[in-house]
């Protein structure tokens, strides 16, 4: 187990000013499946926050002076090393979050990819020569730009994918030449600390990262600090709004909630669509901002899809997240599980039919399928973020586009069809950040821009696009020196 995490008792320290601090107040994390304390994390206090900010301000210059090649080499080593920690990290995710180890291994594979992509992007950072001589006042002059690191970045990460989303934020920030303050989720302190410790073991300089565990007050203090130049946050829309208020006039990358819709057209392979939606609607117990939440099926194929989908959902293995065969483990806690089941019951009371699931055992929700819930039910209107999927029929393609757009969220959507006209129409008309064709909403490539519109946030994650937010453009104007000649044109 890397430094900062004690394997026997899962005691996790705060990393402040180059040292793991373990003495002081702690908070316990109870595993949603084990029902026992699995992690005890040292909580950051006011002194830790002050020390971390002062150290970050001093350390930012040292990180910025590292060459892109040196930063890329660290990330390349980490990409290789994380594969050797795959099972160990997946086990941490299972214990702290109830995430099945098969999902955890998949997340760690993505961590490796993300580190590798960030390393490649570090090598691409540069600038450009601007065409100032194309306008009369620019003749005889030269203008150049380069991308400079912001200095101090703050990364606030969520519980549902704590390893990979930390990798996105921290790796892109380091690739850009920043130092980073990490505020992990209280539900996954050991998983988060282990990723940071692995990077340090691979040569990440101590000046490049600090880790402060705690509740919202710690995050709010870091957001408001003048030392911080950019804040990247993944979480709920309500918390994202609070982050924005606390941060004030800072750069922000906010990846917030979702209410993802997937459309199944009459020309689709219904059996394949049902398999994909079942696999991606309940992975991580549906705790993903792009998890399949609403499936709209063209009416002529609706009953066929509902039957096939329900059968596929009933095949999923529910149980111990540490078991290799488990598809669906626990949700993050009992309250989250009860909310999902309660919403399904509300929809049933309003006329919907529950064709699978609709019950829980502790924090484990049995995969739930709700047929034709009312359009104004919470299961349809709000973000479920749990193991429940609604299936609804539609008649006209233009109408289902409008129904999908009638949401405060707009992160990602799925579309099953072979009709190019419908693909282009959906790409143009759907109010989302991304559209997956012949796949569900729940698919992401870590080197492709990812983010939403409306209450799903703004800015784009993935290293190349995050580097834009983690850097500032600096311009150099050379008066009386031109690469393009210095003679005025004549007419």
Sum this structure up briefly.
With 491 residues, the protein is α/β, with parallel strands linked by helices.
Total number of beta strands? 26
Terminal CA distance: 74 Å
Query: Segments where pLDDT lies below 50 for 5+ residues?
Result: none
Q: Level of helix content?
A: 25-40%
- Judged by helices, strands and strand pairing, the structural class is alpha/beta
Number of helices: 15
Main sheet characteristics: 7 strands, mixed
Strand content: 15-25%
Shape, please?
globular
- Strand neighbour order, sheet with most strands: 16-19-20-15-14-22-23
Explain how this protein is built:
This protein is α/β, with parallel strands linked by helices and 491 residues long. Helix 8 links the parallel strand 12 and strand 13. The N and C termini lie far apart (74 Å).
Question: Any chance you could write out the topology, listing elements then pairs?
Answer:
Blueprint lengths: L4 E2 L4 E2 L1 E3 L2 E3 L4 E5 L6 E6 L3 H19 L3 H17 L1 H12 L3 H22 L4 E4 L11 E8 L2 E5 L5 H14 L3 E5 L5 H13 L7 E3 L4 H9 L5 E5 L2 H11 L3 E5 L5 E4 L5 H12 L12 E5 H16 L19 H16 L3 E4 L3 E2 L2 E2 L2 E4 L6 H4 L6 E7 L2 H9 L3 E2 L1 E5 L3 H10 L4 E4 L15 E2 L2 E2 L4 H8 E8 L13
Parallel strand pairs: 2-6, 9-10, 9-12, 10-11, 12-13, 14-15, 14-22, 15-20, 19-20, 22-23
Antiparallel strand pairs: 1-2, 3-4, 5-6, 7-8, 8-26, 13-25, 16-19, 17-18, 21-24
